[in-house]
Write a structure and sequence with these properties.
alpha/beta, Rossmann fold, 5-stranded parallel β-sheet, 310 residues, 11 helices, 12 strands
Length: 310
């Protein structure tokens, strides 16, 4: 019997028409028993029994993993990023790699806006103070008065730009590979963005060249009272350097949805001027449903194209 693996921590199989079609054609579906991001060894274990298709989360699909997946024909990422997949190794093994870049974009963009507004108005610290019996008269900042610096103008970055413009904020961006630039957004160098932006938000893939893009040097180059948002990928931010910048006051506040190691257990958890969430950027009900159906449809079509099914 042909086997399909779903490695995401959760997935609605019952309400997914393409998966139901595959089940009717005799496929067996194996899900993630750990309900979290898998390690290399764990995904190898799931794939070792001859899976021909994989709906992937963010686990590391390295050359070692793909070498062990002898029958794998299609990887369908449930999400936009492909940085967790060794694309060269996939090509060498004849494995098609597909993704869903549009489906999660609105959800991640809206989470980013929630972060920005919450940090500017200090909603979380005020909430904590009120719960502790205080009644602070904290003065926040208007988004309309800020310059937002967006690093990466892909599907998500462009949405964030338009949403910030709707709040009447000035928007600048850095993306050497930008194809579509929203009207009114000025492209600048990374150095100029760090020096000019009141809000720095990341919306680019992770790679060896973007590792710790925001490090101690970058934080030192930012404006006083800058805030930092990362809802893109762990590894783009040097988390220890960010903790130092938040402690010293060089960065006034930060919000992160993604981390180098997840679940995150680092120094940022001890700070009151940082908001942390558990990699929930795409987990809006409507976006998640669309993303899962698109990932399954990609898998179905990929299996047809590779001849795994008729």
């Amino acid at each position: 019997m042909n086997t399909l693996v779903i490695s995401t921590s959760s997935f609605d199989i019952d309400n997914n028409p393409p998966l139901q079609q595959l089940l009717r054609q005799g496929f067996q579906i194996v899900t993630n028993p750990h309900k979290r991001k898998l390690t290399e060894d764990e995904i190898i274990e799931l794939l070792k029994d001859g899976a021909v298709g994989l709906i992937a989360g963010i686990e590391p699909l390295t050359a070692r993993v793909l070498q062990a997946a002898l029958k794998l024909k299609v990887i369908s990422r449930c999400g936009a990023g492909l940085d967790s997949v060794d694309l060269t190794a996939a090509q060498q093994h004849g494995i098609a790699v597909l993704n869903t870049p549009e489906a999660p974009a609105q959800a991640v963009a809206e989470l980013t806006m929630g972060f920005i507004l919450s940090l500017l108005r200090q909603i979380s610290p005020i909430d904590r103070a009120v719960r502790n019996g205080e009644w602070p008269r904290t003065q926040g900042r208007l988004l309309a008065a800020q310059t937002v610096g967006i690093v990466g103008l892909g599907h998500i970055g462009r949405r964030v730009a338009r949403l910030c413009q709707a709040f009447e904020a000035a928007v600048i961006a850095h993306d050497p590979f930008a194809v579509l630039v929203p009207e009114g957004v000025n492209l600048v160098s990374m150095e100029q963005l760090l020096a000019s932006a009141d809000v720095v938000t990341l919306h680019l893939p992770y790679s060896s060249t973007t590792h710790h893009l925001l490090d101690a040097k970058a934080f030192a180059a930012m404006k006083p009272e800058a805030i930092v948002v990362n809802a893109a990928r762990g590894g783009l931010v040097d988390e220890d350097a960010l903790a130092d910048a938040l402690t010293s006051g060089k960065v006034s506040a930060a919000a992160l949805d993604v981390f180098e190691q997840e679940p995150y257990q680092g120094a940022l958890l001890a700070l009151n001027n940082v908001t942390v969430t558990s990699h929930v950027g795409s987990l809006a009900r409507e976006s998640r449903q669309r993303m899962e159906i698109e990932a399954a449809e990609n898998l179905l079509q990929g299996l047809i194209k590779t001849g795994a099914i008729q």
